[in-house]
Design brief:
The chain is α/β, with parallel strands linked by helices. The protein contains nine helices and seven strands, in the order H-E-H-E-H-H-E-H-E-H-E-H-H-E-H-E. The chain is about 40% helix and about 10% strand. The longest helix has 17 residues. The radius of gyration is 18 Å and the shape is globular.
């Protein structure tokens, strides 16, 4: 029996390449820095600056993020909204958790939709144009670290290019509602680390993008929100998502504080 993944420490396990005849085992591209910051040389943004856009949606999204400009992803929730966004000329889609819950279940975004609900919706949307990057809401990851890992695997299999994991409690609510509660920094970073490790464990060198989202700005203040996203970036998040920024000046200061990581905002 192989050892379980360590979701809780900053030690980075080496990824083992499958050994076949006349091949050698390569060193892991994942190397910890002196301060424990996650670094995967294969996923360095510099590797995605040149060349034509890939037909792989996750790789294509990394190329779009690495190159100049803003990636605009309209919120969609079902087949007709996805078709409308594609026909309007958008080159990236965002599967909204609140809108998907309303569309599929007729319910508010109060942790009612399950992993299966979101994966079912994402699989259908991604099948419309398999080259189109789809960023999908994954709420809290639907459970502990093992469930976060399963969520990443299921989203990647559905054809999703990226997901975001947030720091609300399991009984979460839409980010635009009052009364939100967030978990501790440690629990949030454990979720992010579990997602990163799950992505790195996908066979074939997956380019799946991990987005760390914090809802803490409205609960604990902007300073705490920035600290949480900086910690998430160190844990391996590819993009930082801040919820609840209300002014252009605050958003600009957030982007500066988190540079060079891309920042997502809705």
């Amino acid at each position: 029996m192989s050892p379980a993944l360590d979701y809780f420490s900053s030690t980075k396990p080496a990824s083992v390449q499958p050994q076949t005849e006349n091949t050698t085992i390569l060193d892991s591209p994942v190397t910890p820095s002196d301060d424990g910051t996650y670094y995967n040389a294969r996923l360095d943004p510099a590797n995605y600056l040149d060349g034509p856009l890939s037909s792989n949606p996750a790789t294509r999204l990394r190329q779009m993020l690495a190159r100049p400009g803003i990636v605009v992803a309209p919120g969609i929730c079902d087949g007709i909204s996805a078709r409308c966004a594609i026909d309007a000329g958008f080159n990236c889609l965002y599967q909204s958790g609140a809108a998907t819950t309303a569309s599929r279940l007729g319910q508010p975004d109060l942790a009612i939709a399950t992993l299966n609900d979101f994966v079912g919706a994402a699989s259908m949307v991604c099948s419309i144009d398999p080259t189109m990057p789809v960023i999908a809401d994954a709420d809290t990851g639907f459970g502990g670290p093992t469930m976060v890992s399963r969520t990443v695997t299921q989203y990647a299999k559905a054809g999703v290019a990226a997901l975001h994991i947030e720091d609300q409690v399991q009984t979460k609510r839409c980010g635009h509602l009052l009364g939100k509660q967030v978990v501790s920094r440690d629990e949030f970073i454990t979720r992010v680390r579990a997602a990163v490790l799950a992505r790195d464990a996908i066979p074939g060198d997956s380019d799946f993008v991990i987005i760390a989202r914090t809802d803490s700005a409205q609960v604990l203040g902007m300073e705490e929100a920035i600290i949480r996203l900086q910690l998430a970036a160190r844990a391996g998040a590819d993009v930082c998502f801040i919820e609840g920024v209300r002014t252009k000046e605050l958003l600009e200061s957030t982007v500066t504080a988190l540079a060079p990581k891309p920042v997502s905002h809705n």
